[in-house]
Amino acid sequence: MIFRQLFEPLSSTFTYLLGCEETGQAVLIDPVIVSMDRDLAELSRLGLRLAYSVDTHIHADHITAALELKKQVGSKIAAPAFDRLSCTELGVEEGKLFQVGSIALQPLHTPGHTDGHFAYRCNDRVFTGDALLIEGCGRTDFQNGDADALYKSVKEKLFSLPDDCLVYPAHDYNDRRVSSIAQEKKRNPRLGNNRTLEEFREIMANLGLPYPTFMDYAVPGNRQCGVCPDDLPENLQKYCRHMTASPQG
């Protein structure tokens, strides 16, 4: 399998490129609209054709590139079936393998950050979205977030994976790129080292995080698989742009 981890610095988002060497098909996990040209250039450089984009959840900090990728290169859109997005071709469900060529993703419903959140296991690695970050986790105070649900998702599903399974999160804000299940069990200050549910509830209730800057625009835009709003304030326009020309053209 061809694998690339790509980073978008504005929202500190990782996009993951998975390519099938036999068929030349590829999947992008959590693509960001402002980095779409970069992703298409990387696919072209590797000689891959994008078959699907797939998101881990409805993001609140950036606009997904799913819809624009479909317009540009004809890729299909996959997303959690739980969210019932009318713009998708494939609704991802737990227990149903998502396969593109030799790329096989095992969807894991991991609610808590959002109620429709999914992680995707692929061989020796798991793409955890915002459910499990490197020494952290996503917040649980919006989009039907729930601390109890997130605790259960991580403890019962993600921490039940093999210790040497590599953890690739949707974000990191401290220049880290990969962890492991064993490391998170031991070192994650919110969920590791035998943290109790009561302790986790208290931690999440007292984070004191500000309201997400881009959320009121990102969530409705992402419910349409990546539509940039026309009424963006000037200070937020860097987060989103309408694609006007194909980098392949």
UniProtKB/TrEMBL annotation:
Keyword Metal-binding: yes
GO terms (BP aspect): glutathione metabolic process; hydrogen sulfide metabolic process
CDD domains registered for this protein in UniProt: POD-like_MBL-fold (cd07724)
UniProt superkingdom: Bacteria
Residues in Metallo-beta-lactamase domain copies: 12-171
InterPro entries: Metallo-B-lactamas, Mito_Persulfide_Diox, POD-like_MBL-fold, RibonucZ/Hydroxyglut_hydro
Alphabetized UniProt keyword annotations: Hydrolase, Metal-binding
GO molecular function per UniProt: hydrolase activity; metal ion binding; sulfur dioxygenase activity
Short name of any one Pfam family annotated for the protein: Lactamase_B
Residues that span the membrane, as ranges: none
SUPFAM superfamilies xrefs: Metallo-hydrolase/oxidoreductase
Name of the protein this chain belongs to: MBL fold hydrolase
Organism: Nitrosospira lacus
